[in-house]
Request: fold
Amino acid sequence: MTRLLALFALLLPTVLAGCPSTGDDDDSAPPADDDDVADDDDATGDDDDSTPCEMDPCETTADTGYVGGTLLLPDGTPGSCLVLTVCSDAQCIFTNASEDGEFCVDGLNPDDYVVHNLSYPGEDAMVDMFQWSSFYDFAPVVAGQATTFPEDFVVPEVSEAIGDLVGDTSIAYFNGELQLDFDAQYLHFPPPSNNNPAPTLGAVKLPENRWPTNGLLDWGIVAAWHFAPFETALIEEAEPDDIEHEFDITINVGPQDPAMEYALLYAHYQDITADIATGHFTEAPAVLAADNETITGQVKVAGALLLVKR
Reply:
């Protein structure tokens, strides 16, 4: 699994570029040479012969299953050709959504898999990662069965973004509903967003129909948010190992029931001992204050954040 995550780091700047195309060959012959033949590589200029991202039919076997779904943008248009991954601690497969936003990945051994997008709408990954977050869910795969999702995956678009991330920082989103406090000197953005000279940390609140359906253990969701860049962490470089610091989280989404137990679930994709290995979100304790409204806790990553109760 360590090899798989090392591969993520190497491939991420490439896959974030989005949909592959065979159309603009970047060759020197004049456009009049165009023969409209896809993938011909015939030294013609700007062939206008781009091949849509295609999805091969998926099949199950007695020993394997598959995961399938539809990827959309917030306006309901397809997430055409966006790159996503389906990963367990033993298998990790990259794929593209089709032109219609559909995807399926077969040949999967029985296990729990993380499903999320690695690329975003737009032309500049370093910019797009601050404007878009990632969908994130778990897919339990059973041999001989297809795992499909009842709701479409929607790539979350940031609705609030905060800059000037220097020193001890306090960020309040959505009129104070969600607050993050942290030491910005340790901010660690995933590549290539880590090269942005004026970074922001954005957030979007997910409506109930976009909440994840799996990996919740026995918790029920109260509210859910996603951040951008997805998987932003607080890391202090140290020897022999880097130190992970935590975001202090304060949530106030209205009156809560003091008889219930509360927690925070969050995505921790890059930790090989966390989500991918366990098949569920990473859990962190949360405390309901005496006012029965304010909930506090700590998480190591700003990616997907769920307030849950039971």
